[in-house]
Structure formats: C-alpha cells, structure tokens
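pinned: reference chain
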Amino acid sequence: MTGVKHMKWWGWGVEGVAFNPDNKPKLAPFVLDAVGLDLSSTPTPPISFDDLDVPAPQLPNSLQDDLVEAVGETYVHTDDMDRVVHTYGKSLRDLIRIRANILPRVPDVVVYPSDEDQVRKVVDVARKAGAVLIPFGGGSNISGSLEPRANESRAVISLDMGRMNRVLDIDEDAQLARIQAGTLGPDVEEQLNAQGWTMGHFPDSFTHSTVGGWAATRSSGMQSDKYGDIADIIRGLRVVQPDHTTVIRPLPSTATGPSVREMLIGSEGRLGVITEVTAQVHRLPEHRVIQAYLFADWPSGLAAMREIAASDASPSVTRISDANETGFSFATQKESTGASKYVTEGLMKFLELRGWDLSQLCLSFIGYEGSKTHVSMDKAIVDKIVKKHKGIGIGTGPGQMYDQKKFDTPYIRDFLLDRGAMGDVSETAAPWSRLQEVYDNTVAAARAAYDQIGVKGWVMCHLSHSYHSGACLYFTFAYVADEQQDTIEQYDTVKRAIQQSFIDHGGTLSHHHAVGTEHSPWLEQDISAGGVAMMQGVFDAVDPKASLNPGKIIPE
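pinned: its structure tokens
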C-alpha cells in the first residue's frame, strides 16, 4: 500500500459520494425543459472494472528492477487498477472513453517517490531506458495532459507525486511557504491553517488536485481576485530535469532576462518534474463573508463587475452567472419551507413590481476578506456600484450555501452521464471591451453546433476571476447524446465551435484549464506561429528525446 488515495477510475471524486437530486424538486422539470432528459429514466452505470480490456504492461525486467532500486518494491506498481487510474484525467472525453472500454495505451508502471532524491533517480532511470515519464498529481486534469500517446512504443512511467505531501517550512517574515508538489489542496490548507496561514488558492478541483498540478497547468482559484492566479502565488520552484535540477529562488522580483519561472509554470510536465514550490501565503483573515446580489440582466451585471474591478474595492471573489446559469442554480436548491419560502416568494413579487423580467435574473456572489473595518469599507464601495447598475443585495445566506457546495458540482456530470447526457465546460479570458462579444458569439456558436448534430442543448456561463483589463468567462454546456451518432464526434462538434468562438472574438484558448491535447489545436491562433516555434525550441533544448510527457501543449 502506498498511502496515496485516488479518485474513482470511472468518474469524479471518491467512491460512495454521488449527486442526489431527491431533495431538489425543481431540478427534474428544469432538466427536462433544458435538454429533454427525464431524470426518472433508468441510469446506465459504468461497466465493471473486470470487463475492461487493459493492455498488458510493456515493461522490460531491467527497467522494473531499476525502478524498484530507486524507490523500493512497495512503490512500483504494475497492477491493472493502478495503471488505469493513471491513464486519463477527468475530462468528458476521458470519461466517455473509459466507460466505452477505450484504452489504446495505458502506463506500463506507476511509481511513487517519497522525495526529490527519489524523483531524480526515477528521471535518470527513465532516461537510461529510453522510457516516457508522465508526472501525475491528483488526476483531476480535464485538458488531456495526462494520457500517454496512443501510438507510444516506448515504456511509459506514470510518476505519482502523492507521497510528497508536506508543507516543509514557512518563512513568516517573507510570508512564503515551501510545499512539496504532491500535496493536495485540503492538505495544503490544513497544514498552513494550523499555523495561522492560508495560500488562498481554491480551484474547482481543490479537493482532488495538488500544488504541483496547479503549477504545471497555470491554475486559477475562486479567490484569485485577492490572492492572484497560481502564477502570481508561486515565487520559487524546484524542477528535476534530465542531467540537472533547475532551482528558481523565491525572489520578490528580478530582471534576469526571459522568465524561467514563467516557462516552468504551465509546462505540463514537458520541462521536467516539479518537486517543490515556494508559494506566497497570507495570515488567515479575521473576517470573511460572501454576499449575494441580483441583477436584472447580464449586461447590467457585467458592467457592475467591470466597475468593481476598476474601483478601490478589493474583493476576494467577483462572480456573476448569466440568466441560464442562475436558473440552473435555483433549480438545484433544496425546497424552501417555512419563513424562507415566503421571503423568496415576496422577493420575486417585489422584483416583478420593479419591472424585472424574472427569466433574465442574474445571480452574483462577491466575497470580502480582512478586518471587519476593511470588509465594511469594501462592501460599501461595491454596494454603491451594484445600486448604480440597478442590482440589489439579498444577504449572505445564498453565499454561505455557495461556499459550502462549491466543490461538489463535478459530481453532477457523472449523474447526467449515467443517463446519456453530456456535460462539460470551456473557459476563456478576454478584455472587458470584448467580453459581451465573446459571450454573445459563444452562446450562438454552441446553439448552432447543437442544431448541426440535431440535439436540444443547453449553454450557460458565469464571469469569474476579474482583472484590471478583463475577466474570465466560464461556459458550461450540456445535451443528450444521439445514440445514432458517434459520441465523441458529437462532442467535438460542440467543443470545437465554442473554442473557435473564443479565438475569433478576442479570447484565449483557456484561462486556467491548461492546453494539454484538448486545446492544442488552437495554440498557434492564440500565441502566433512565432510563439509556438519559441515554445518548441525550449522543449527541444530541455528534452531532445521527447521523453517528458510528449504530445502535450504543441499539437503533433
């Protein structure tokens, strides 16, 4: 036993935890209207693991012996379950394939190092054997950054970093923490909180992703407005590469030419194995609150978020859902009873009297952190802006519920997939001046794609991660697959339409889900041919034999 816990091989999260719609009476009629799916239909669960056709490992005895010598026999695994768990991430494409028993290439061996010295030994062993090495954190990736190439003829080693799971030390004066790369989000916060600190990084995948994975994919968290994206948070790194270890010292700023730190962040294992990061940390806030607001429509809410970003306020969260996502959020709530039911009904009647079209309501969450005085000042600035844009505050109750359930959303996807419905996400970032354009055209592109494949589909969006010059738009799309068509081809039609819309209207291919193989077809359009050539030059210089997670980021 390695002591490392993994997610389900067939879906999100841990065994025994699943989405339950029974106490959400509005959800079934909502889903039926949105995509034509009857939630009372009999689900089709994933196939049994025993029915999977798992290719036998292609592992030379000499390589296995060398890996055992490097990390110990207990931490070298060739069993089918471990290898399958380390084959895919958790994208919709990954889940479709695993449920369809599509396993063209799985890692031949999974290795669990305990420290950087053992990582160095494994990298050296892999290089000597001419093997492929793929770093593995929590397995939550949804951009195809983990899977081996289908035609890979070399031995494939999955390097699971899960045993490297400690906060090593904290420099209180500099407010920096050294953290091993395999540390999961909850473990990072638990160890930091015990000493009065927080990293403040909370991506949707927080419970099942690691600090090394965050660094390797340029992650962003729900509170990035205050704490920054992972590229802002990480100040130093240690990366094991062929022949040497690259060390980026945690300096506040430096003028040492093109940033090697920036090259390593987002490199998805192609420039080496991240073993340790030094991250900015902050004292736990004295006071924390998430306030809910309602806006009459999406343009009003968007304008308010833009003005908040330009104001003197410094909220930790600025998020607004469009009308479709707001409707979905209301549909997933538990049934209101007693006083809360009458309060909700009274609010809706009040808004109707104000002339609001309730079908266009947009729900917003704005978070505040710090001293009570600071929170009060920030909230006063935001409240004034909200009022200017005809929005209203509706208290902290909805915000508390959002805060409690924010990491549970991915479980809904498995529930829908059991019933033949495809649900996935795509996100981008664009300047404030083009956000409405990106939004309008992406919604139209998704709907046109649904028409093309002949299905009734749904698309919804929220704004998150505000910056001085722009923001992230996070789209969720869903439809019931047509059993007469190829499932992957249907998915590609919708996904391609959305991604191309991002590029065509001023957005990036991904704000925080990385490139992998899922988004690599749009890389040249995003960073230009010259940018791709520079990136390829770096990969070739560090890894001339293409043994470090080949095939990712730059399309082959």
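why pinned: The chain has a mean pLDDT of 95. The first strand starts at residue 76 and ends at 77.
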